[in-house]
């Protein structure tokens, strides 16, 4: 009976949220996704999508949040004069404009709970969003989007996005997960130095060397500040000398209000798999009184502070406060969710990841390069030393010579993971792998290669960042890592498979998606738990498609067709 009542409650909550969304006249997320014109070729679609996915502070659709059923609110930094375009936005879009409570210097200085109504954070320049429910500028999506924009000759738009990240560092304490108030406690994978170098190289190639050199000085300052976030005490992975993902907030994340079944789904899964021993569940009444609420606020989450928390229970079971810390850290990683760190990655914050530390290794080499460009040999030396130290730690804790792969390291348990994950190719892309290590990892490509490119893992767990799903950003990093280390044959083959899959599905439903089933080479996904949508857009898929196309054109090798499963075109009931 209690299970039935919990289902009814969740259904009522979903209906209530939908009604509230309708009352505020917020457009559905599919209305925020690009549409293909009749007969439009895929390359033309991608070029037009950059404009359809662009947002700015003089555009009504920019302030809409498809994830929360609330009135649109735009927040300005506490100490910044109100820009002229905001006055117009407030009048024409029925948007409320408010100020943040105080100046922010570091991530976590202001907690989302201090903001009565969640809202968008002001950014000065136009930016490109991923698509669908993701109607804001994201930390790691933006790197790949920037690559795609540069590939499309949209360097000014790409540079403006990097400048927006400088603005976030200056006014919001760091690069946020995305520019919404509920992301004030976490960042996303650190790609800023790579963004800066991509724009710098594009400016130099266009003959703007002097302008690019001046801009690089600014970039170096902000990149140094962003890097410091990842060496702060809360991001340290014990005494390993490596970093971890970590969110300074507590309890369930606010943005999951539009997916009221996610956390109950996790609980249902844990209850149905008692053989998976975790500490993710705690007991508590489904209708707690004041005393039980106070106890749950310590052991699980605070019902009075979170609507999402209030619905995150099943038959007297709640998720532990430590699970929520891992869940939040997982979202900072961008891989949400996978089973890489236990069920639903609930132990993310206990691990030093291969991906994060490879990114930071490249970041440190990039900062050394920038210091050299601006003529600061002392800074150059310090950053190279930091990179050397990190590579030593990567080799000590993350490299497995016997298996010929990189694995994450659980610094709480003092042991290396055994979970094969596509991020093993990150050190190749970052330049952290030596020739022997690169060859060993290349030999393991068969663990991940499928009909449509590469899958994230060989484990079918029912969530979106494991088998059978493939994702454009990590596929591109894998391809570029292979190419950088001289393995052009594999890089070309994976690129052809991926592009053929994307193109074939575009011909079917005239859209480009967030993720693909790389076994069936289809956009038709059946995620069992967690996010079940497959959003149209999609920024990083567009970019990877373009980058792989350029790689194939410049490889000097013939473009032979790739055989992938043929998708029967049918009308999809696709969630957007």
Protein architecture, described:
A 3-stranded parallel β-sheet has the order 3-2-4, with no helix packed on it. It is built from 18 helices and 17 strands. The two termini are 33 Å apart. The protein is mostly helical and 576 residues long. It has a domain at 248-351. Helix 4 (141-151) runs parallel beside helix 6 (192-205), helix 6 (192-205) runs antiparallel to helix 7 (209-230) and helix 16 packs parallel to helix 18. 43% of the residues lie in helices and 7% in strands.
Distinctive features:
single chain; 576 residues; mainly alpha; 18 helices; 17 strands; 43% helix; globular; disordered N terminus; disordered C terminus
In brief:
By secondary structure, the chain is mainly alpha-helical. 43% of the residues lie in helices and 7% in strands. It has a domain at 248-351.
Topology of this structure?
Layout: H1 2-23, H2 42-52, E1 54-55, E2 73-76, H3 84-92, E3 96-99, E4 120-121, E5 127-128, H4 141-151, H5 155-171, H6 192-205, H7 209-230, H8 262-272, E6 281-283, H9 290-299, H10 307-310, E7 313-314, E8 317-319, H11 321-333, E9 351-352, H12 354-373, H13 377-397, E10 399-400, E11 405-406, E12 409-410, E13 415-416, H14 426-430, H15 435-442, E14 449-450, E15 453-454, E16 469-470, H16 472-484, H17 488-509, E17 516-517, H18 539-554
Parallel strand pairs: 2-3, 2-4
Antiparallel strand pairs: 1-5, 6-8, 7-8, 9-12, 10-11, 12-13, 14-15, 16-17
Helix pairs in contact: 4-5, 4-6, 4-18, 5-6, 6-7, 6-12, 7-12, 12-13, 16-17, 16-18, 17-18
């Amino acid at each position: 009976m209690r299970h039935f009542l919990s289902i009814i409650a969740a259904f009522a909550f979903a209906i209530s949220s939908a009604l509230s969304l309708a009352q505020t006249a917020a457009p559905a997320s599919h209305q925020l996704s690009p549409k293909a014109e009749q007969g439009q070729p895929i390359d033309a679609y991608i070029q037009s999508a950059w404009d359809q996915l662009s947002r700015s502070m003089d555009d009504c659709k920019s302030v809409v949040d498809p994830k929360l059923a609330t009135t649109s609110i735009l927040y300005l930094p506490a100490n910044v004069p109100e820009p002229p375009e905001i006055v117009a936005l407030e009048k024409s879009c029925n948007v409320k404009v408010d100020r943040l409570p105080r100046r922010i210097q570091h991530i976590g200085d202001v907690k989302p709970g201090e903001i009565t109504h969640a809202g968008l954070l002001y950014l000065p320049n136009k930016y490109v969003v991923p698509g669908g429910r993701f109607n804001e500028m994201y930390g790691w999506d933006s790197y790949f989007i920037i690559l795609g924009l540069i590939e499309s000759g949209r360097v000014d738009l790409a540079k403006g996005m990097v400048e927006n990240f400088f603005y976030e560092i200056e006014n919001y304490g760091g690069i946020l997960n995305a520019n919404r108030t509920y992301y004030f406690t976490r960042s996303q994978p650190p790609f800023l130095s790579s963004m800066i170098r991509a724009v710098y190289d594009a400016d130099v190639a266009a003959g703007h060397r002097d302008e690019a050199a001046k801009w690089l000085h600014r970039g170096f300052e902000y990149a140094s500040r962003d890097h410091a976030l990842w060496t702060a005490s809360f991001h340290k992975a014990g005494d390993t000398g490596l970093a971890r993902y970590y969110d300074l907030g507590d309890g369930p994340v606010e943005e999951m209000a539009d997916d009221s079944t996610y956390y109950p789904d996790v609980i249902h899964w844990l209850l149905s798999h008692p053989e998976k021993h975790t500490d993710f569940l705690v007991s508590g009444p489904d209708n707690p009184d004041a005393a039980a609420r106070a106890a749950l606020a310590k052991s699980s989450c605070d019902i009075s502070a979170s609507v999402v928390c209030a619905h995150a229970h099943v038959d007297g079971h709640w998720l532990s406060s430590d699970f929520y810390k891992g869940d939040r850290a997982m979202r900072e990683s961008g891989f949400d969710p996978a089973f890489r760190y236990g069920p639903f990655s609930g132990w993310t914050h206990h691990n030093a990841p291969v991906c994060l530390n490879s990114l930071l290794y490249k970041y440190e080499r990039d900062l050394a390069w920038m210091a050299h460009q601006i003529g600061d040999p002392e800074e150059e030396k310090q950053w190279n030393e930091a990179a050397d130290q990190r590579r030593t730690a990567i080799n000590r804790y993350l490299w497995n010579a016997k298996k010929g792969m990189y694995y994450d390291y659980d610094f709480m348990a003092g042991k290396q993971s055994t979970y094969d994950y596509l991020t093993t190719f990150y050190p190749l892309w970052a330049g952290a792998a030596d020739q022997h290590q690169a060859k060993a990892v290349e030999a393991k490509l068969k663990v991940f290669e499928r009909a449509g490119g590469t899958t994230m893992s060989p484990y079918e767990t029912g969530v979106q960042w494991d088998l059978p799903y493939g994702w454009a950003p990590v596929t591109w990093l894998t391809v570029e890592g292979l190419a950088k280390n001289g393995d052009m044959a594999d890089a070309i083959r994976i690129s052809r498979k991926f592009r053929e899959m994307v193109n074939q599905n575009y011909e079917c439903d005239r859209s480009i998606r967030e993720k693909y089933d790389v076994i069936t080479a289809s956009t038709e996904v059946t995620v069992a738990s967690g996010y079940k949508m497959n959003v149209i857009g999609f920024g990083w898929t567009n970019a990877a498609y373009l980058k792989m196309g350029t790689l194939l054109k410049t490889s000097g090798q013939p473009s032979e067709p790739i055989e992938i499963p043929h998708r029967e075109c049918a009308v999809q009931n696709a969630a957007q």
